[in-house]
Amino acid sequence: MKNQAFPYLILFLLVGIVAGLAGVIAGSLAVYTALSDQTGGMVQAATELPKPTMVISTDQPAQIVSLDQAVTHAVESVGPAVVTVVGTIPGGASFFGVVPDSSVSGSGVFISSEGYLVTNNHVLEDANKVIVILADGTEKPAEIIGTEKYADLAILKVEGGVPSVATLGNSDGLRPGQTVIAIGSPLGDFKNSVTVGVVSATGRMLDTGLGYEIQGLIQTDAAINSGNSGGPLVNLKGEIIGINTLVIRGDSMGGAPAEGLGFAIPTNTVSAVVEQLIQKGYFSRPYLGINMQPITPDLAAMYNLQTEWGAYVTSISSDSPARQAGMQQGDIIIKIGDIHLDEDNTFANALFSYSPGETIDLEVVRQSQTIKLQVTLGESKPG
What we know:
Helix content is 23%, strand content 37%. It is an alpha+beta fold.
């Protein structure tokens, strides 16, 4: 019996040894595989991370492209339509003698195959001669078709063919965080420079210091410098969504410096203004026909006025809407239509909320009494 059991014992021991060796081999392979995943596998993943992607919508099926490809395509699409604008300001006699001609420069962009291009009004202000320099360096004379200082926009026209035309997009759908591209000629020398940033905010309002505010501006951190004024702010579809107009560096009274505070006029404003400038040579604004002095709390306290905010009427034009409505010199306008004049609503911005031909009520303080006048607004004319 014992002799018969011995072979079975040997066989059992051999099976156990083989199973143990198989377990050791399998464990070693598992450890090796894990180490490979934690070394070579991780290194490979780190060197082959996919770039951020986004969908560029077109009429064709959507294609996935990288962010840098989208920026490059947008610049290639709009860049040839961007120009440098150079204006000549005539000199003249002064207390110190004859002042020679001087020049100003900015940027612009073609928006029509007929040769129309848009820029900022402040780029051309006081200029009597304008040339544009195309992206390839070609210079062309340009005619000033119309300007609108309250929106800081101007339209130029060049004769002959244009190298390219940019598309005006819809600025109403902009959201903070969207990638945008500024193209222009900073300092007038670095033609067609490209900077990239995001929409920081929309609906911004800035005081011009001239008695009115520019409203509805796009704020961006894309670098904008002197000379970029009038150039396009572009989305990743290659559409213009704003016209760059100004940048804030910080408090002029010695406050903290600031960077990345650029502003652009949204294209929906641009479209409305440009259409009238091309058709009529000016943008139709409501006309009241007065000269006025803004009233602030400091002035009100100094002259013991009954209202802290308003517009003091210093003179009235003959045959003006104000004259026909019975307005008198010395009246203080405190309300235009439904808008009270205050720190946030200047006279010009309140008036420009209405249209020529519209009949509205004016609330006026006259000799300690508040009265209402009904006026039908006229249309402003250039010059």
